[in-house]
Amino acid sequence: MRDFFFHLQTPRGLQPAEVSIACEGPEAAFMEACRVIPDIAAAMLRAGDNPMLCQFIIRNAKGEEMFTVPFTELIRNVPAHSRH
After folding, report:
1. Domain assignments of the chain as residue spans, ordered by start
2. Is the sign of the CA dihedral 12, 16, 22, 24 positive or negative?
């Protein structure tokens, strides 16, 4: 297991992760980001924020940027009536 930090980049700025998440490797960290984005996006919408402008910046324990995961990768700006 390796430690990864999931920093949240929003239009208001970077919200640094305070704790790490242990994952098997970079691929597992990417999958974890994909797993949590829908819930975070829903909470942001309820608060009146636009999650389409956000992304995770994932860094390893050394602080090296591994990759970014834009929220748009998992959510689309599609009207609810057209999702059926």
Report:
1. 2-82
2. positive
